[in-house]
Write a structure and sequence with these properties.
The protein is about 50% helix and about 15% strand. With about 240 residues, the chain is α+β, with helices and mostly antiparallel strands. The chain has 2 domains: about 160 residues, Histidine kinase-like ATPase, C-terminal domain (Heat Shock Protein 90); about 60 residues. The two termini are about 35 Å apart. It is an enzyme of class 2 (transferase).
Length: about 240
């Protein structure tokens, strides 16, 4: 398969040291996405236990009746639960990411930009960012920053850039196609090359990457399949 190679492949050692502006921007989006997902998962893990504690303490408070001293102790527990719940909500809000309005974006071109920034290749026929032909109907409705961060997460999950910076043993290949009905856009990311360092999928940050990418797919009526060296991101096409 003929493909377009990234100019990063020819930068040599300098590419391993200096990130270009696009790579720096994507890395920052990745960081913010992980912080937001961490806050959401933390709040989710505590929500049910806090609800149980609140229910039990409210029941005890009713059963104690006129025992004011014990009722006051129970109330302090309820106040603590309320404070913790409020703090969790504030933490999620302070780490908000990609919660803006969705708009039609050139998903193929955007994915190409991400892949090239990580030293990868783009299959022939995939437009670069900004080169999408007007009216070709290949746009999808997404939050732009959330989608870009999800693509970076997927590259990490298939082994690209997890054990190096800049020019790495594994580079991504992007292929784009539509489904048979022409209603959905399918982005396939493949990791080319071999690495002696397996992807540490057991690590908490990689678990968060997967959850964040799954969230983007789910919130945009898409599908996500992740394998050892490949990932497929499918999204419905935007129609006028």
């Amino acid at each position: 398969m003929s493909a377009t190679s990234s100019p990063h492949n020819s930068h040599g050692k300098a590419a391993a040291v200096d990130l270009d502006p696009t790579r720096e921007r994507l890395t920052e989006l990745e960081r913010r996405s992980l912080l937001a997902e961490q806050a959401r998962q933390h709040a989710h893990s505590l929500r049910s236990p806090l609800s149980v504690i609140e229910l039990i303490t409210e029941t005890l408070q009713l059963e104690l009746g006129e025992d004011r001293e014990r009722a006051q102790r129970i109330q302090r527990v309820l106040d603590a639960v309320s404070t913790l719940s409020t703090n969790l909500i504030q933490t999620v809000r302070s780490n908000r990411f990609a919660d803006g309005p969705k708009r039609p974006v050139d998903a193929a071109g955007m994915a190409a930009e991400v892949v090239l920034a990580f030293g990868g290749r783009v299959a022939d026929g995939v437009p670069s960012q900004g080169q999408q032909a007007d009216g070709d109907g290949s746009a999808v409705w997404v939050d732009e920053q959330g989608f870009q961060a999800a693509l970076v997460h997927l590259l990490r999950l298939i082994g690209v850039g997890h054990a190096c910076n800049g020019v790495c043993a594994q580079q991504p290949l992007l292929e784009v196609e539509r489904d048979q009905d022409g209603q959905r856009l399918r982005l396939r990311l493949t990791s080319e090359g071999r690495s002696d360092d397996p992807v540490p999928t057991e690590r908490a940050d990689y678990w968060l990457m997967l959850k964040a990418a799954e969230r983007v797919a789910r919130e945009n009526d898409g599908l996500l399949v992740v394998g050892l060296d490949h990932a497929t991101f499918e999204l419905p096409l935007a129609h006028d």
